[in-house]
Amino acid sequence: MLRRVGPDEVMLGQMLYLLETADLPHVTIRFVLLDRLIAGNEASMAGGMAHLQFGRGGLPDLVYVEGYGKADYYNKPARSAEERAKPWPTKDNEFERHLQLLLRIQGEACASPAASRRLLEAAVKRYS
Asked: Distance between CA atoms of 117 and 115, rounded to whole angstroms?
């Protein structure tokens, strides 16, 4: 929102698109606040992250992690009933590790959906 990717018209178009998308019932947009820190997690500063859920019968959950010059998708591995009865091996599972980091960021460093909308509205005014 603050890093320019083009002239005011481009930025305005991007902010308006995000506002429109935020109104969809299946989308939640939350911004990581610049003055928040998640101690000990340099990965939280690597780039964008998203948890993608596709609902019952859809694709398995994914965690999208964007870094410098690359992007990775981590999918939730299928587990047998026997495996589901045991604790999830977080250390050995990249999906779970990244999902836990994303949830921690959401809990500790993100503006609420309402506050994020107000940030977008302020950005619209700034670029108008």
From this structure: 5
> Is residue 64 within 8 Å of residue 50, measured between CB atoms?
yes
Burial class (CB in 10 A: 0-12, 13-18, 19+), 46: middle
Backbone phi, psi, residue 93, to 5°: -120, 110
Nearest to 33 by CA among 100, 92, 118, 127: 118
Structure tokens at 83: 């495996």
Dist. CA 104–CA 12, nearest whole Å: 30
Report, as an integer, the average pLDDT of 96-123: 85
Q: How confident is the model at residue 127 (pLDDT cuts 50, 70, 90)?
A: very high
Q: Kindly report the backbone phi and psi dihedral angles of residue 118, in degrees, each rounded to the nearest multiple of 5, phi listed first.
A: -65, -40
Residues 66 and 70: their CA atoms lie apart, in Å, by 6
57: left (phi over 0), alpha (psi -120 to 50) or beta: left
Q: What pLDDT score does 42 carry?
A: 55
Residue matched to tokens 């939350």: 30
